[in-house]
Specification:
Length: 343
Amino acid sequence: MIDLRSDTVTKPTPAMRRAMAEAEVGDDVYGEDPTVNLLQERAAEIFGKEAALFLPTGSMGNQIAVKLHTKPGQEVVIEERGHIYNYEMAAMAAISGTLARPVKSSDGSGILNWDDISAAIRANDAPYYVARTGLLALENSHNLAGGTVMSAERTGEICEKAREINLPVHLDGARIFNAAVAENVSVADLSKPVDSVQFCLSKGLGAPVGSMLVGSRDFIDEARAWRKLLGGGMRQVGVLAAAGLIAIEETPKSLHVDHENARVLAEGAANLRGVSIDPEKVVTNIVIFDVSKAGVSAGEICMRLKEKGILASPFGNSIRMVTHYDVTRENIQTTLDALQTIL
Ligand code: TLP
């Protein structure tokens, strides 16, 4: 099968499997797993922050951040297609007692500017009976907006304004390495101004399991307690951290190939009957195209693709295809040929 449903489907590389087999381990609940400790130190260093924490999932990282930055009864301002709001089981309400305040980006790109955000903020000068904004949550790259990227400059501008009103900013950087490659900057450049960042080892970076939460030492100390409370205190988990180390040190070097494949896929799809997508906007590894004019539903197209050995995800009237290191240029051509036949 050519699996384009997500970059979560990657299998560990031979180097990762070797590192996992040979990993030095200890009980991480006691802080004694040397491989986990090394991964946490490296992640903090690479992101230019004080500390980092290894977590089982990106959702747990995001939700711990929401918990630590907010008080019950507050709102979280987030772009309307944001993952934290749409795909994390209403956890911000269930765990933190917060409400999402979804906002649209004025240019439709999913990339917010300060004007988009400030219109949704309820600061201390708001009437007493409206909920206060407790957190601004950004996402980079923005998954459901088609892998679009927020520049370091835009992130800096937004965070500066947020700081003026003491509003913390959390970055869902599940695919921040993809964003950094697309912008030709470092992940530290993209995350320096935010208070906390979550990034996934198990998406385009190819590790089988795991995410990291990065921030100040105090924030990470508290996050460790919340990870335990949520049942995420793991023991000899260096076997997973070993793959994570390879994911952060090695995989970023080849992410540009995934981006090139995504662009070729988008350019080919743009020429097909009933498909609408602007290939110029595909800058990372996510391709989302609208098929509402195809005369056949996104779900039906995905079913027919599956019969031809290709997996993709329907999202409403659109189809999402995500490239990753298990997808070759030849696979892209096969996918385009199959799509053409179906349409
Ligand atoms: N995204 C998954 C699905 O949940 C949609 C995918 O296939 O893309 N933030 C962002 C931006 C994400 O895309 C995801 C996963 C997460 C957080 C959550 O990560 P996990 O799955 O590790 O909890």
